[in-house]
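Hi, here's the filled form for the chain we discussed.

Project: internal
Contact: R.S.
Residues: 136
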Amino acid sequence: MAEAVKQARPEFRNIGIAQIARYRLPWAGKVSILHRVSGALMFLLLPFVLYLFEQSVTSELSFAKFSALLSNGFVKLVILALIWGYLHHFCAGIRFLLLDVHVGVAKPTSAKSAVAVLVVSLLLTLIFGLKLFGLF
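And the returned structure, exactly as it came back:
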């Protein structure tokens, strides 16, 4: 009996860099990673935001300089990235707070809330982006 047939155990390995493109991350994982990315983006661009704020409130001349800076297309794209970062971080933060109090922790509900975070943050970013670029 001691010499029973040994079954082959499954072998689990970490995914490598080459496999990252083929790995299918669930929606909740994507939201979690984007939550970290948006937080890092806001933190790293904080000096730029403080500079813009300082330029907008110091004097009329600095406000004119601020307005001229905002007419640059690249600066508008950076501000749009900041808008997305803030909105995504805010929406995902609400989702994570709800998960902390055990609301929507079931797998299907969690996946739906993750997709909802992505959709809501992108729609709000689109609305603010249209306003930023002067389309309404």
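Let me know if anything looks off before we file it.
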